[in-house]
Amino acid sequence: MYCALIYILYALISVAGTCAIKQHNFPPLKNDNLLRAARGEPVDRVPVWVMRQAGRYLPEFQEVRKHHDFFTVCRTPELACEVTMQPLRRFDLDASIIFCDILVIPQALGMIVEMHAGVGPVFPEPLQTPADLAKLTPEGAVGRLTYVGDAITMMRHMLEGRVPLIGFTGAPWTLMGYMIEGGGSKTMAKSKAWLTDYPEDSKMLLSMLTNAIVDYLEMQVKAGAQLLQIFESSAEHLSKEDFLKWAVPYLKDIRDKLDERLKQQSIPVVPMTIFAKGAGHSLKEQATLGYDVIGLDWTVDPVEARKEVGPNITLQGNLDPQDMYKTPVEIRALTTEMVRKFGKDRYIANLGHGITPQTPIISMETLVDAVHKAI
Length: 375
Ligand code: CP3
What we know:
The chain is of the alpha/beta class. It has a single domain, classed as TIM Barrel (Alpha-Beta Barrel). The chain has helices spanning 2-22, 33-39, 59-67, 70-75, 77-90, 104-108, 146-159, 172-181, 189-197, 199-223, 240-246, 248-264, 283-286, 302-309, 328-342, 361-374; strands at 96-97, 114-116, 120-122, 165-170, 227-232, 272-276, 293-295, 314-319, 347-351. The strands form two sheets. A seven-stranded parallel β-sheet has the order 1-4-5-6-7-8-9, with helices on both faces. A two-stranded antiparallel ribbon has the order 2-3. The site of coproporphyrinogen III (CP3) has 21 residues, from strand 3.
């Protein structure tokens, strides 16, 4: 009797979970090469997308930004979708990534973040001492990010199944860094001082961020995100030892907790990518965290990376964004060489970091075409 009740309850929860996804009625995917590559299945062609593919190198993006503040674009689904669509109108890309920023989580935790032209993000009141942690508002944080879910759902419909939609978040250490430094930093001196001087408070902050990230990613999957990428862009500032101590456990927690959360609701788990810039020293360790895809920066050799991670992980990357300033002939040669080194299986072509603002449009055209023709 007791068992039967539990079974019925479980069945009800399952149905509710499946409905949470199905009710959207999204159009079927026409090009699923990205998802196939992430799952280790055969592809028709090597999929390619570019970090920051919606950005300032596109004149039409600049045009939107003339009229709207950066975070207004993020918070307005119509604008976020327009900007997300811009690179797809120009290039034969195999994925779209929802337009947003990693710093919306600190905002949802109650911090003010401004985007200053020519400077980047600025936090007028960064975290200075552990006492400032009390000012953060983790309760209900995900509820302040529903605009991202709305943009994702709208985008899935706008895409009409053309390519998959990637959702993303910043990783705990990278977000902690911005919250303490108050913006970008060349040294991360203040955040590193936190790790040494306030280890317990640092753990508390990293755990708070981990929980907010799991809620946020769950919301993105329910809204329609088909692959999730975690940006640990500030891994480059940590020694290997510190990366293993201050980044890796939280990255693992995110994957484990999200999987559990989705399974409980019978929502299919989506593939996940970890992009830990500058952590090529720990590829073996990254390969144990349960992520399907590991993103590489350009300092890592594709053949060596494959040896490190083994055959069951997909690699993503890793052309140097500065190579995009070379001639089309050179870009084509470098891209072809890169794709041949990675091979057709378990590979997603990308740059080794975000595309930079002055990149010529023809470089993107060349990159995308060269990937598709390489093998
Ligand atoms: O990839 C995409 O097309 C999706 C959009 C996206 C943006 N930011 C838009 C953006 C993504 C995935 C991000 C992630 C992000 N944001 C990261 C991780 C990736 C990385 O580059 O390491 C980080 C560290 C941030 C924080 C952030 N946002 C910084 C440091 C800056 C300033 C960068 C600069 O070059 O000035 C931003 C601003 C930002 N985010 C822009 C865009 C298109 C440019 C700002 C503008 O339009 O004025």
